[in-house]
Specification:
heterodimer; A: mainly beta; Folate-binding fold; four-stranded antiparallel sheet; two-stranded antiparallel sheet; 1 helix; B: alpha+beta; Ubiquitin-like (UB roll); FAD/NAD(P)-binding domain; 6 domains; 24 helices; elongated
Chain lengths: ~90, ~1000
């Protein structure tokens, strides 16, 4: 059971949050211009990394804010949290 | 009656005699006993039959690892408990226990015949035998297996006991109150860290607490005396909490642990009453010290499972802690020094014993001590067989060859009434691995050890592979100082003298002249798997330890292989010729020992089982005989049965009344989201398929919301209350998810939009009045409101007051009738409802529930998202192309509407179905075909909604059918179990296609 440091509320139990999958997948600005394959890439394709992964979490039973998390999926350690719109920490690239 | 209690100890209170029943017979023990020690004191070893062969089995151990002495406690239907380990169960006055897995009784067991049939029950027997014929499974095999399995009985009535949950936070959690745990806890607490020490036993001290060997001393005292002082000291520490009778069940990530505290299991019946039985502790600790100790290993030789064969150290504990001897003529069979401690203890109490040692020779203080006491030792010998049916009475030993692979010389037969075995020690690495830690293998004594300790977790003491006291104390002190980053000097000058083990010899499967196929060398006592089974599994091609485990069921019983897993691994490694360390282990999963469901559930039983949401009109519905339907967490009136009516009658009456005169529905549960901000219109444009910019203030519009994959997600009516203010309604079940989804887009994709979302579902109560007389009823409620079609047309919104309370009134319809929804602040909901009912009396205003609502909307062909859709339906599939804007550049899901798959013509599409026999009502979910003769039958779709319409006087249904749009008028078949129902594809709108009733 993770402890997640919500950037707005502080450290809280995982049960207050819901996971929103991979982060930094930007919705295309002009979907109509895309081919089926390009649209499918946005819609369906997700990485499933063993190691450092950027993911979205929502403090759904708290402030309801979405934010980003850097997590090492091999040991579940959360290395960093940052707000939506902020650049991911470069040292985890 | 024989008495094996041969001396007094401080842990047994002989002034407090306790009577208990075992298998119906009354016995006596003392306060301080476990059920196992009391049975042994009464000379009872035989406590059960084995699972597969029904062989007599006796008590093997004195703790959580016990495979045999599991019993059923109590006989009441609500309070009986199976699989309780007699070795852990504290004795109390009036305890009733019985042995499991034997019929008719433990001494004469019919299943014992399996023992003689055992060549017919090899590994994988169940998989191999019960495969065919298939038809036998349900009627023959399954009942047979269930009958003979008999691992205890579960209670058949609700558990009346009280359970509790508690959340705690500590700086340091120490698991295990033996020497190393006590030292760690003391160091942490004295350094001002808030510390919790848990131990599963009644008292602290582990196995050192009864240690009385003169050759093992700390600061010139017996180690047990020294430890008692330490315990006295830590009890005085103010920031140390000590919880005994508390065992860690699970170690989850981020140092989140679950512990079970036993509060009343050791008390007599009358003292348990109204007390919490067990408490589940949910612990968050910054640091965790694992000091869970180790468990002695059995040895694997022929007939190693007879009653009277125990672990050597358990014999020692029964003697020195409980004052009970397990026999009068004991043989100890060992490959290490620890059995010598048992031997010396027995000798001192005058119990005759001899030692059979696998090792060629050995030299240590303990061995010298045993030799000087004149204890007979057979070095380089192995036990090859044991004898005695209900209890061991003798055994055979032989000399080992130089390489240890075979036996040499003549058999020597020795008589005995008890055999202690010691195959070395297995560190309890469960907690370490549950926390995600990896293991290393140490070849010299064949143990798996915690590989690296993380910054949050550390293992100390014998669970870390440190076995002698000097090593344990020194290493624990050093490691804890480092781990907690402290400098504690308390043990700087502690002087420890102990015997050091110098010689080791490990043989997993002991050699025997008898071919393996004819031996019974048990590995897993509880699941009856033998060395032969493991070898057979390997022969049949199984290689992975996880597969061998499941095929042979080794380690899969209630003890989870605490005594057997290492031997299974060892034999696999030896047979396959690989190094044991490379095999890995099976996964150590929580819980460490079984938990009751009651503990896990805690107080969330009965009305606390689940959150229930009720509307403010709920009491009225109850008073008026509503049957309720669960919709999400909501309780919604399903139908209101009048006297003598069944559900069908009630729904037909309600449906007819709503169309003939007036009906009223509690619509408070619909999700309501308040949307405000200068970009609210633009936001709606992006989330709904249709256009919103031109919606005038005071008007309502129906919207369809898609997922990005183009599939229908939710629907509802949204009202424009003012320029930048909308009220969105969602389906009852979808409210929370819709809000989350909208928030997601707002916060992550379109943060530039000035839009604010607030869930107001609970803020407003809604009464929906429909039917040709609804306008007249509204007129009585709101006499000043102009209800003319010109002033208040369909799909529009007005505000007015009832007795000075604001109401929002929408003229919208889900039934196809003239219809008004009145929204009022929730606290007035009940009053509003009663006023509506009162005003409607003269018009036969009929309250109706969700079933009638579903029927009425189906007559009009309105979909219910989640019933007529299932996450694979596009708007076009629903024949709702009219609601998808062609002009809008983008909205959620738009691009997906012309993917190659979504534009297929032969997708499943929504149609209406009319049965040829108008009285025949289809079953929802029924399959639809066109031809029942050609096999395999081509499935075209299924029925999604089906009702008997009282207003049309015929059966109607909605269905999804492949290429359904083009099939109007076609005949199809619904094949049911005993007949085929003929239907015709129709339009989805069955009633009032011209929408005349909306303005009736």
């Amino acid at each position: 059971m993770f402890l997640i440091n919500c950037p707005f509320c502080g450290e809280r139990d995982q049960s207050e949050f819901s996971s929103g999958g991979e982060a930094h997948i930007v919705r295309p600005k002009q979907p109509t211009e895309l081919s089926d394959d390009e649209w499918a890439e946005y819609l369906f394709m997700r990485k499933n990394i063993k190691g450092i992964q950027f993911e979205r979490w929502n403090h759904v039973h708290g402030c309801r804010k979405w934010f980003n998390v850097v997590r090492d999926t091999s040991n579940d350690k959360i290395l960093s949290v940052y707000k939506m719109g902020e650049k991911p920490p470069v040292n985890y690239k | 009656m024989p008495n094996y209690r041969i001396h007094k100890t401080e842990y047994i209170d002989e002034t407090k005699r306790v009577s208990f029943k075992y298998d119906g017979k009354t016995y006596f023990g003392y306060e301080g006993d476990t059920l196992a020690s009391a049975l042994l004191a009464n000379g009872i070893h035989l406590v059960g039959r084995s699972f597969k062969y029904h062989r007599p089995r006796g008590i093997v151990s004195c703790g959580a690892e016990e495979p045999n002495a599991i019993c059923q406690i109590g006989s009441k239907k609500d309070l009986t408990e199976p699989n309780v380990r007699a070795t852990e169960l504290e004795l109390y006055e009036g305890l009733e226990a019985s042995s499991q897995n034997c019929w008719p009784n433990v001494k004469f067991d019919i299943g014992g015949i399996n023992n003689f049939m055992s060549p017919l029950i090899p590994a994988g027997f169940y998989y191999k035998t019960f495969m065919w014929p298939k038809s036998f499974w349900k009627k023959v095999y399954e009942p047979l297996i269930r009958l003979s399995a008999g691992l205890g009985k579960s209670p058949t009535e609700p558990d009346p006991d009280i359970y509790d949950h508690k959340y705690v936070h500590y700086d340091v959690l120490v698991i295990g109150g033996g020497v190393s745990g006590i030292i760690a806890a003391k160091m942490a607490a004295k350094n001002n860290l808030k510390t919790l020490l848990v131990d599963d036993k009644k008292i602290l001290g582990g196995s050192t607490i009864y240690q009385n060997n003169e050759s093992i001393k700390i600061d010139d005292k017996l180690s047990s005396e020294w430890l008692k002082n330490e315990i006295q000291e830590i009890k005085k520490l103010s920031n140390l909490t000590i919880k005994t009778r508390t065992s860690i069940a699970a170690y989850h990530g981020y140092n989140f642990l679950l512990a079970k505290e036993n509060l009343t299991d050791h008390l007599p019946e009358e003292k348990k009453e109204n007390k919490i039985r067990q408490r589940l502790w949910k612990i968050r600790a910054k640091k965790v010290v694992i000091a869970t100790g180790s468990i002695e290993r059995p040895l694997v030789f022929n007939n190693n499972d007879r009653p009277g064969i125990l672990l050597s150290n358990s014999i020692n504990k029964y003697l020195d802690y409980y004052g009970v001897t397990c026999g009068e003529n004991i043989i100890l069979f060992t490959n290490n020094d620890s059995a010598y401690e048992t031997s010396i203890s027995l000798h001192k109490k005058g119990i005759k014993n001899i030692i059979v040692d696998l090792r060629k020779s050995a030299s240590s203080e303990l061995i010298k001590q045993a030799e000087s006491l004149g204890i007979k030792i057979y070095f380089n010998h192995v036990v090859t067989n044991t004898f005695g049916y209900r209890k061991i009475n003798s055994l055979e030993i032989m000399k080992l060859s130089e390489d240890g692979n075979t036996t040499v010389g003549n058999k020597i037969r020795l008589s005995c009434d008890c055999l202690g075995m010691s195959g070395g020690w297995t560190p309890m690495v469960h907690m370490h691995t549950q926390s995600g830690g990896k293991l290393d293998f140490r070849d010299e004594d064949q143990v798996f050890l915690p590989k690296e300790n993380s910054e949050d977790q550390i293992s100390v003491g014998s669970c870390n592979g440190d076995f002698d006291l000097e090593n344990i104390i020194d290493k624990t002190v050093n490691k804890i100082n480092k781990f907690l980053d402290i400098d504690n000097q308390d043990y700087q000058d502690t002087n420890i003298i102990c015997s050091k083990e110098n010689d080791k010899r490990n043989i997993w499967l002991l050699p025997n002249k008898i071919p393996l196929g004819k031996t019974k060398c048990f590995i897993d006592f509880q699941n009856d798997s033998t060395a032969k089974d493991i070898k057979l599994a390997l022969k049949e091609g199984f290689r992975s330890i996880e597969h061998v485990k499941r095929y042979t069921t080794t380690g899969m019983a209630t003890d989870q292989g605490k005594l057997s897993n290492m031997h299974a691994l060892g034999i696999i490694a030896d047979t396959a010729g690989v190094k044991m360390g490379t095999l890995g282990t099976t996964t150590f999963r929580p819980p460490f020992t079984p938990l009751t469901f009651g503990t896990l559930v805690g107080r969330n039983v009965g009305k606390f089982f689940e959150v229930v949401r009720k509307t403010s009109m709920h009491e009225w519905h109850v008073e008026n005989n509503a049957e309720f339907e669960n919709v999400g967490q909501w309780k919604r009136p399903w139908y209101y049965a009048k006297k003598g009516e069944n559900m069908h009658d009630a729904v037909q009456r309600e449906s007819k009344a709503a169309r003939d005169s007036a009906g009223i529905l509690d619509a408070s549960t619909l999700g309501k989201i308040d949307i405000q901000g200068t970009d609210a219109s633009e936001f709606l444009n992006r989330v709904y398929t249709n256009a919103w910019s031109k919606l005038a203030i005071g008007k309502c519009r129906y919207g369809l919301m898609l997922n990005e994959d183009g599939m229908v997600y939710d629907d509802g009516v949204t009202t424009r209350i003012s320029e930048n203010h909308y009220l969105m309604t969602t389906t009852t079940g979808g409210a929370a998810n819709v809000l989350s989804k909208l928030e997601d887009y707002l916060q992550t994709e379109w943060p530039e939009l000035d839009v604010y979302l607030t869930s107001v579902t609970d803020h407003y109560s809604t009464a929906s009045i429909c039917g040709p007389n609804s306008k007249r009823i509204l007129n009585k409620l709101f006499p000043n409101l102009d209800l003319s079609d010109e002033n208040f047309p369909h799909m529009s919104f007005k505000e007015d007051k009832i007795e000075n309370i604001n109401c929002r009134i929408m003229r919208i319809s889900f039934t196809g009738e003239l219809s008004y929804e009145i929204n009022i602040e929730s606290k007035y909901g009940h009053s509003l409802w009663k006023m509506c009912i009162e005003a409607g009396k003269e018009f036969n205003l009929t309250p109706y529930g969700t079933e009638t609502m579903h029927l009425l909307r189906a007559e009009k062909g309105f979909i219910i998202v989640g019933q007529d859709t299932d996450g694979t339906m596009t708007p076009s599939d629903l024949q709702m192309d009219w609601i998808v804007s062609k002009k809008k550049y983008d909205f959620i899901g738009k691009r997906s509407l012309y993917r190659s798959d979504t534009i297929r013509e032969d997708r499943k599409q929504l149609v209406g179905l009319l049965t040829d026999d108008p009285k025949e009502i289809l079953e929802e979910g029924a399959q639809i075909v066109s031809d029942v003769k050609s096999k395999p039958i081509d499935m075209l779709g299924h029925v999604t909604s089906s009702y008997f319409s009282p207003n049309l006087n015929k059966s109607i249904a909605l269905a999804v059918v492949r290429s359904g749009k083009t099939m109007k008028g076609q005949k199809l078949i619904i094949p049911m179990e005993n007949k085929n129902i003929n239907v015709t594809v129709s339009d989805t709108i069955f009633l009032d296609k011209e929408n005349k009733r909306l303005n009736a």
